[in-house]
Amino acid sequence: MLEALDEAAVGRWSRAVVDTLAQARGRLDELNVFPVPDGDTGTNLLMTAEAGNAALEQAAREADAGGESPWTVLARGAVLGARGNSGAILAQLLRGLADGLAGAARVDGRVLAEALSAASRTAYTAVADPEEGTFLTVARAGAEAAAAAVSGGRALLADVVRAAADGALTALQATPGQLAALRDAGVVDAGGAGWCLVLDALVGTVTGTVPTRAPLDRRPARHRGVPAPTAPAPGPGSEVQFLLADSDEAAVARLQGRLAELGDCLVVVGVDTPGGREWNVHVHVGDVGAAIEAGIEAGRPHRISVTALAPVRPPAAAAGTRASVALTCSAGLADLFAGEGVAVLTAPAGEVTEDAVLAAVLGTGAEQVVVLPNDAEATAVTARAAERAREDGRDVVVVPTRSGVQGLAALAVADPARRFGDDVVAMAEAAAATRWAEVTVAAHDALTSAGRCAAGDVLGSAEGDVVVIGPDLATVARDLLDRLLSAGGEMVTVVVGEDAALGDAVCAHLAAVHPTVDVVRYAGGAGAVPLLVGVE
User: Fold this and answer.
1) CB neighbours of residue 108 within 10 Å
2) pLDDT tens digits, residue range 275-285?
3) The pTM of the whole model exceeds 0.85
4) What is the rounded end-to-end Cα distance, in angstroms, of the chain?
5) Could you give the CA distance from residue 397 to residue 374 in angstroms, rounded to a whole number?
6) Whose CA is closest to 202, among 434, 14, 332?
7) Cα–Cα distance between 406 and 412 in angstroms, integer?
8) pLDDT by residue (tens digit) across 357-379?
9) How do 395-398 and 343-346 pair as beta strands?
10) What SS3 class is residue 98?
11) Which terminal Cβ of the chain has fewer Cβ within 10 Å, N or C?
């Protein structure tokens, strides 16, 4: 039985939360009907908890991480990795706890109760339009129960965590009476249910025994599939989420005001990082471009994710119809693919989910679908989604494009007049014939195929292998292009990130040194790597 939470206990709690949410993910997803019935609350809570836990584990491995509170590390990881509305609220609660506990000499019951109360208050301020009967209500009730335990003379840590868990559970059971959407669907709030599991994991960490609770209720049979619209529900049609850097509190306040005008479900959570303060911004909007532009006006948005709030029931496949789905990590590439009539799924590299790909494929309404992952790490995810789509009667093929420029090359030869199989072969051959490369900036020290690099070094990679390491973007880009074109090439496609000057320097170099090569330049926009290159 712990009398206070030490650093080791924080790590054990974090791992227990991940394990608990992983087991409950499906049930929590099924409970999700508010604010939109998109069935992802359990997934988002789990991914946020995993991000926080990963930050803790990384800090434990790094020799220079000593001295920083694990509460701070956990909260920062959760905020930077938060997914969806529920994930953003969970991250805010963890950040609120860190604000109260990181500097505490001893985290006993009284200190924890005060931190839970403060965390609940800050979570309400992070949500633009808080409603009762939700995650926030359950978190506040747990904090109030913890405070009541202390004021009633039960200030031992075990008493406080048990009171918080029991108080949250009582509030959770009352949520259907507070929110019509929950009452109509016959469920409790999914986010609140997740927070109850988080608190139960804390009880287990402190006492050694996880509370024995009835398993999460499934949605009553008479309510399953409700709501199940055949078209998106009224209101904003896309979830936009991004991290915002290079900003300040005044600019973020203006951003919140603008996004509140554009949509709903607005949650903004800030956290201090070694590189300065960053904010995780989440909103549901009808105008994705306007939301991203508002972010650009406020600072530097990155890791931009745009997810359609798709209908629960996908449209039936129309016989003989054909479509393509492309994955991208930047707004500029998304516009390019959309301009070709392609269904686009935008998510940061490595963060696309199988469910999101499946929804995009089924959402096309086409019988025959080509999927372009445009990232080696996304190939396995898209393949699993394609297999599930085939079970729904769709003819789905993944063309294993490893880069956005290979995806563009594949689309350039697509011909709907050809047999589907022949068209897929032609697209795959065009993609394979396109050599690709990119210029990025190293996030940390590492040993690469071109030698050791330090954080901040510029890396030039060809076909996924680092071949050039240098001090600045333009120098590395020129060297990388010369290496690529030494093997020949008639056309170069360059997709330039947010540094237009880099694009100017690259195009000038190509014109001077490789004058016979045709050059096509596109703007990658927010979320793009500094430079993406394709050679054909």
Assistant:
1) 18
2) 899 999 999 98
3) no
4) 66
5) 14
6) 14
7) 10
8) 998 898 888 999 999 999 988 99
9) unpaired
10) helix
11) N
